[in-house]
């Protein structure tokens, strides 16, 4: 929680000559497509059995993610000796489950002590033995696509000598059980919340409509300046960033951005504000979700499989957003905006 006119991203057009990239050739872009295909096939394989939190398969994915972080060059967060942030999750029956966020860090090589958070959830809903036929919820789009996009995003940023922010890459567990992983991190942060400038989560970014390639949308577009900031940067790369798909669906509150954006608001207060009953005062960090899903029926269905994923479009989005973030001025401030539902403030 759209045939591409240009396969991948023409990085050279968007990167200043003062920034050194290891290689921005067609070969590198093809490599990202090949890697994304390989990663998607792994995450959405039947062998992963739907990546249910607490399962052996989910634990295997944790180790796989650590390996990918190391290969890309992501470090452990300063002060931590592991990529794993372990916590106890609870399923709907109240059973306790061993869970873990997988957190990586990319230093900006600059004077800033601020952070930009990007991520996705790697868990899904497992297997339903009551179904006839296919019983495995592979979760290719939800949200293996976001995991793959986060890895490509990080891999692209790793090629720059300097960034405007330090980068936190969060792979969240137990999202399907109520955003438990991101909630745990927000309550037990590995970096000061006051130093997190902003960020976004990749949510269902793998299955665009055929007439909507190079087109994504962002939740909470009226809530902060991150939307116009990224929209302007993406437009330079022939990507269109639209407002939220359907404001009435409350998608801003249903992805792993929400625990960061709504640090101290209870669900009843949020519900009243969202319904326009009473404007709510909320303390939080401008954090949003980016998606390309537009209502296709694979959401939480067994046929959400790797064969549905438009890998070139996914890779292009991840690369484009990496260039957009790198292009921001080091003094960029993402501000909450006045809106009809919430009166936001920062921690």
UniProtKB/TrEMBL annotation:
Which Pfam family is an annotated match for this chain, by its short name? Peptidase_M28
What Gene3D superfamilies would the database entry show? Zn peptidases
**Which range is the signal sequence, renumbered to this chain?**
1-22
| Domain Peptidase M28 span(s) in chain numbering | 101-320
Keyword tags:
Signal
Query: InterPro entries from the xrefs?
Result: M28_fam, Peptidase_M28
Which protein are we looking at? M20/M25/M40 family metallo-hydrolase
Name the source organism. Answer: Kangiella japonica
């Amino acid at each position: 929680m759209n045939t591409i006119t240009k396969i991948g991203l023409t990085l050279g057009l968007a990167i200043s000559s003062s920034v050194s990239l290891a290689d921005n050739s067609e070969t590198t872009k093809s490599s990202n497509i090949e890697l994304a295909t390989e990663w998607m096939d792994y995450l959405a394989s039947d062998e992963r059995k739907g990546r249910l939190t607490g399962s052996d398969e989910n634990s295997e994915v944790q180790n796989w993610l650590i390996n990918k972080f190391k290969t890309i060059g992501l470090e452990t967060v300063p002060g931590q000796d592991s990529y794993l942030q372990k916590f106890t999750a609870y399923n709907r029956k109240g059973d306790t489950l061993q869970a873990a966020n997988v957190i990586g860090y990319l230093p900006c090589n600059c004077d800033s002590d601020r952070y930009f958070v990007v991520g996705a959830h790697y868990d899904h809903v497992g297997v339903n033995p009551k179904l006839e036929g296919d019983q495995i919820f592979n979760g290719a789009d939800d949200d293996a696509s976001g995991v793959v996009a986060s890895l490509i995003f990080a891999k692209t940023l790793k090629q720059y000598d300097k960034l405007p922010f330090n980068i936190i890459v969060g792979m969240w567990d137990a999202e399907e059980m109520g955003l438990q992983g991101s909630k745990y991190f927000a309550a037990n942060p590995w970096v000061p919340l006051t130093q997190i400038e902003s960020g976004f989560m990749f949510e269902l970014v793998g299955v665009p409509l055929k007439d909507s390639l190079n087109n994504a949308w962002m939740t909470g577009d009226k809530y902060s300046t991150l939307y116009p900031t990224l929209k302007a940067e993406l437009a330079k790369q022939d990507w269109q960033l639209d407002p939220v798909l359907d404001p009435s669906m409350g998608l801003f509150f249903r992805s792993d951005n929400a625990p960061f954006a709504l640090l101290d608001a209870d669900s009843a207060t949020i519900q009243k504000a969202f319904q326009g009953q009473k404007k709510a005062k909320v303390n939080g960090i401008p954090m949003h979700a980016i998606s390309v899903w537009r209502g296709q029926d694979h959401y939480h269905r067994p046929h959400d499989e790797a064969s549905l994923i438009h890998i070139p479009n996914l890779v292009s989005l991840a690369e484009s957003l990496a260039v957009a973030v790198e292009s921001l001025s080091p003094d960029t401030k993402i501000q909450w905006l006045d809106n009809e539902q919430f009166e936001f403030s920062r921690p």
